[in-house]
Design a protein that fits this description.
The complex is a heterodimer of chains A (about 400) and B (about 475).
Chain A (H helix, E strand, L loop, with lengths): L2 H9 L4 E2 L3 E2 L4 E2 L1 E3 L4 H13 L4 E4 L16 E4 L13 E3 L4 E5 L4 H11 L4 E2 L11 H7 L13 E7 L5 E5 L11 H5 L8 E8 L1 E2 L3 E8 L7 H4 L4 E7 L1 H6 L6 E8 L1 H15 L2 E3 L3 H10 L4 E6 L5 H8 L5 E5 L4 E6 L3 H9 L2 E6 L2 H6 L3 E2 L5 H11 L15
Parallel strand pairs in A: 4-6, 5-6
Antiparallel strand pairs in A: 1-4, 2-3, 7-8, 8-12, 9-13, 10-11, 10-12, 14-16, 14-17, 15-16, 15-19, 18-20, 18-21, 19-20, 21-22
Helix pairs in contact in A: 1-2, 10-11
Chain B lengths: L6 H12 L4 E2 L2 H4 L16 E3 L4 H13 L4 E4 L16 E4 L6 E5 L4 E4 L5 H8 L4 E2 L12 H7 L6 H4 L6 E7 L5 E5 L10 H5 L8 E8 L1 E2 L3 E9 L2 H13 L6 E6 H8 L13 E9 L1 H17 L4 E4 L3 H12 L1 H5 L5 E4 L2 E2 L5 H14 L3 E6 L5 E2 L1 E5 L4 H20 L18 H4 L2 H14 L34
Parallel strand pairs in B: 2-4, 3-4
Antiparallel strand pairs in B: 1-2, 5-6, 6-10, 7-11, 8-9, 8-10, 12-14, 12-15, 13-14, 13-18, 16-20, 17-19, 18-20
Classes of the chains: A alpha+beta (about 400), B alpha+beta (about 475).
């Protein structure tokens, strides 16, 4: 019996698609769409027993991230995961400022629900690059948004399903916890190669009383660090000249959103105007910046560097047709380019990097995860422990594990 | 493990690495390493070795592996869960000599430190840059950053600033096979698996941290400290809930109950707290100068609405220190009550605090114990403290019974069995309260990837049937535990 037939028998025909599909790099025989953690576990158990492999997909906004996965033949769609273990419905605890949320729910849907159920006191601390992004996808990619930091800062616990179809959990609903290994850190950003996230406990953040958006002229990212570190600064995006022009700014500078108590937002705004000749901007600019961040002109590379090194890194990457977007205080920079020379320039920078988007040929030929080779044995050992037969996104991660 | 190797050979090999005077083997030297801050668990190490460099640590680890002897990294030994005990007659790798701050980068807001640097010394060293190191465990005057990394230490200001894991950017780690790896980077956004996140809080079971790159935070423009005086601990807990619900994020919210106030006021830490109060709630807000005053006023109003009979605002730094003295001196003050202090550590959802606190006190009363509470209320992190005399076998048994009942109570309320002290030997048998066998197996996979032979700090974190200290609370025979 084929894997798809076995999946259909276990989960029902409606949850299995036998039409050949394609992700960004693989020809796939079909798909499976579990609706619950139990179904997810069953599906992975079937796949593992057949020694087959899956491509895990949430909202699909990061399909092109990582190396191609030619071995995988089945698409595992997690967007159907709309319930949390035990309780079923998502739980939003406005008294404690935490929420238990299903991986398959879209961030935009959850954000709206959090806002409604908490009377606007709390907000979901994710601002993904695409409106279709699922919570699970945000966690599996650990991709930085603009308003909020790394997902690791707000994930309290995770329910995951391992490659063998075993459901496990780590962490919990409380805001402080050192009970056992912090496996959530390991799953976050692992691109679904160690386990598939079923649901998560998330710490909500208070909705700021006031927000205001500013344009801060800054010739290079390092000049933007100080304003980006103001106490009420939340979303900061330094844009090279080409991107800045899209916000109708004549030169490079930084889009900055201030958020917090009204007096602090006002005081910081006054300071920006006084010290940096900053000008107020329409808040819609934030959506424009998000769109720039998601843009794929051919190559998009994320570089992680000390804030003081960002200008050096940006200078090394500058070339006709290459635009730079940076989060100065967080030490993050994106190069958007069609020119493959940017890859060599990133390597020369000596900084940690991740090729987020690239043509198929580049994804096949080059290592996309720019970090120390010395860590490869440890990372391979982790993959071997959690997914010994290569069920989950085989070959996608660093070193093609 | 194979047959017991010749002990003199191990010791000679260790001396070859670090020098004869940096290897301790005499009983009177080993005695002080038998326990950490959890005094009713003990195990005598086979040797204690004090390396000075990463290379020496790596060589020590290789010597231990060659002799098939387990090893345990140790900081200042202030841990409260038995995590630094050398089970299986292991070797303790004492990091006290690795106590240098290697690099301070104020512009990029990080520092590189060796594991033996005392927590508060780092903040002192960067103060003139307008920076500080945020995690502030109560033992911060003596505890070391290596130990903080191992335990993912918290502290009163965790509420706003997070625990150690939120402040570690990179690590140098000697793996259990003696190889050295560097995890993470000063910029803090790794491209591969988050190995730093996995190692922080792993209780020294994945390797020996020999260097840590930690984030430095800017000293807030303004700090307001309030002291709420409540008729009872339940109303103080309700005030905490109201403040959290409102969306305010204080830097710290700490409750000190009546029994603790009485102990503090009778000690050298006396802070002038009203001994007729049922509890005090210390609340600290910090941030932008223009915003903190209004936040403090909101906090004060919410406290009064929940029954505070008075809320004082510190008028100056001296008064702020006085408020904090009651909190920070609490554990020292307990020393007057009994020779031993058992500090439990559990977390519950914050809205459950009032009912849980009542239940915790009832457990202490029912078992005839001197139980008091001083805890990180803003995080829901309880610290029921039980003063006792471990030489009294019956009292010790009741202490352990209370500890177990409190943990069960917290888990039933949706909480967990440790918020900042770790599992160590103390709570490993209770991991099953929270986690299934499958959950624990998933954790063991992490362990196996780093340490397939389980040589590094064995016998911690995971339940074992080889020891039954619950059945025999007087048992101190951890040195009889076979090396896993």
């Amino acid at each position: 019996m084929s894997v798809l037939a076995a999946l259909a028998r276990e989960l029902g025909e409606a949850q299995v698609g036998s039409t050949p599909a394609r992700d960004s790099s693989s020809e796939l025989d079909g798909s499976v769409r579990p609706r619950t953690g139990e179904e997810l576990a069953t599906a992975l158990g079937v796949v593992a027993a057949a020694r087959a492999s899956v491509v895990v997909r949430g909202g699909g906004s990061w399909d092109g991230l990582g190396h191609p996965m030619p071995r995988a033949r089945i698409l595992l769609e997690t967007a159907g995961l709309q319930s949390v273990p035990e309780r079923g419905d998502p739980e939003i605890d406005s008294e404690d400022g935490v929420a238990h949320l299903p991986a398959g729910a879209s961030v935009s849907w959850i954000s709206e629900r959090v806002r409604k159920e908490t009377g606007g006191t709390w907000e979901l601390p994710f601002d993904p690059v695409a409106p279709t992004a699922t919570l699970g996808g945000c966690l599996a990619t650990a991709s930085p948004g603009f308003c909020f930091g790394h997902p690791r800062d707000v994930v309290l616990g995770l329910e995951t399903v391992l490659a063998t179809g075993v459901r496990v959990r780590c962490g919990g609903r409380v805001v402080k916890n050192v009970t056992g290994y912090d496996l959530a850190k390991l799953y976050l950003g692992s691109l679904g190669t160690l386990g598939v996230i079923e649901a998560a406990w998330i710490r909500l953040l208070p909705t700021p009383e006031k927000t205001a958006c500013w344009w801060v002229p800054a010739a290079d990212p390092s000049q933007a660090v100080e304003p980006a570190r103001r106490s009420s600064a939340r979303a900061a995006a330094w844009l090279s000249a080409g991107l800045a022009r899209e916000l109708e700014a004549p030169r490079a500078g930084m889009f900055l959103e201030l958020a917090g108590d009204a007096p602090a937002v006002k005081a910081d705004g006054d300071w920006l105007a006084r010290q940096h000749a900053a000008e107020k901007l329409d808040p819609a600019g934030l959506d424009r910046v998000r769109e720039m961040r998601a843009r794929n002109p051919g190559l998009r590379v994320r570089v992680s560097a000390r804030p003081s090194a960002l200008t050096r890194v940006a200078a090394g990457l500058s070339a006709p047709g290459t635009e730079i977007l940076a989060q100065p205080a967080r030490g993050l920079l994106w190069a958007l380019s069609q020119d493959e020379a940017v890859l060599a320039a990133v390597e020369r920078s000596g900084e940690s990097y991740l090729v987020e988007a690239a043509p198929q040929a580049v994804r096949e030929a080059r290592e996309l995860f720019g970090e120390s080779q010395a860590l490869r044995p440890l990372q391979a050992a982790l993959k071997a422990q959690y997914d010994p037969t290569g069920v989950l996104n085989p070959g996608r991660f660093a070193g093609r594990i | 493990m194979g047959p017991t190797p010749n002990p003199s050979s191990l010791e000679a090999s260790l001396r070859d690495v670090v020098g004869a005077d940096q290897v301790l083997t005499r009983p009177e030297e080993l005695f002080v390493y038998e326990v950490d801050g959890l005094t009713h668990h003990s195990a005598r190490p086979r040797a204690v070795v004090l390396p000075a460099t990463t290379e020496e640590v790596a060589r020590v680890v290789k010597v231990c592996r060659r002799h098939e002897v387990p090893f345990v990294p140790r900081g200042a030994g202030t841990g409260l869960s038995g995590g630094a005990l050398a089970l299986g007659r292991g070797v303790i790798i004492e990091c006290a000599r690795m106590n240098s701050i290697l690099q301070i980068e104020p512009e990029d807001r990080y520092a590189v430190v060796q594991p033996g640097v005392v927590n508060t010394d780092l903040s002192k060293a960067v103060l003139h840059h307008g920076l500080f190191y945020a995690p502030d465990p109560s033992s911060q005057l003596v505890c070391t950053l290596g130990g903080n990394v191992a335990e993912n230490s918290g502290g009163p200001h965790t509420l706003k600033y997070g625990t150690t894991t939120d402040h570690v950017l990179a690590l140098e780690l000697v793996l259990p096979d003696g190889s050295v790896v560097r995890l993470g980077s000063p910029s803090g956004w790794p491209a591969g698996y988050d190995l730093v996140g996995a190692v922080v809080g792993s209780e020294g079971t994945l390797g020996v941290v020999t260097e840590a790159t930690v984030r430095l935070s800017p000293i807030p423009e303004r700090t307001e400290t309030l002291l709420g005086i409540f008729p009872d601990v339940v109303s103080a807990c309700r005030a905490v809930g109201a403040i959290i619900r409102s969306g305010l994020v204080p830097a710290a919210m700490e409750i000190v109950d009546r029994r603790t106030i009485e102990a503090v006021e009778a000690s050298v830490y006396a802070a002038g707290l009203p001994t007729d109060a049922g509890a005090v709630l210390i609340m600290e807000l910090d941030g932008a100068a223009v915003a903190v005053g209004a936040q403090a006023e909101r906090t004060r109003a919410l406290s009064l609405a929940e029954g505070a009979r008075d809320v004082q605002v510190a008028r100056d730094e001296q008064e702020r220190q006085r408020f904090w003295r009651a909190r920070k001196g609490a554990f020292g003050a307990m020393g007057r009550l009994a020779p031993d202090l058992y500090v439990n550590d559990a977390v519950v959802p914050r809205r459950k605090l009032p009912e849980i606190l009542e239940a915790v006190c009832a457990i202490g009363d029912r078992l005839g114990l001197r139980l008091s509470n001083v805890f990180h209320a803003g995080d829901g992190n309880l610290h029921p403290n039980i003063s006792f005399d471990r030489r009294d076998a019956d009292e010790l048994a009741r202490v352990l019974q209370a500890g177990e009942e409190i943990l069960r109570l917290c888990v039933e309320a949706g909480g967990v069995i440790s918020g900042e002290h770790g599992i160590g030997t103390e709570k490993r048998e209770y991991m099953g309260l929270l986690f299934s066998d499958d959950d624990l197996e998933a954790m063991k996979k992490l362990r196996a990837a780093f340490d397939p032979t389980l040589a590094c700090n064995p016998g911690k974190l995971f339940p074992t049937t080889r020891i039954c200290f619950e059945a025999n609370p007087k048992a101190r025979g951890y040195d009889q535990v076979p090396f896993e």
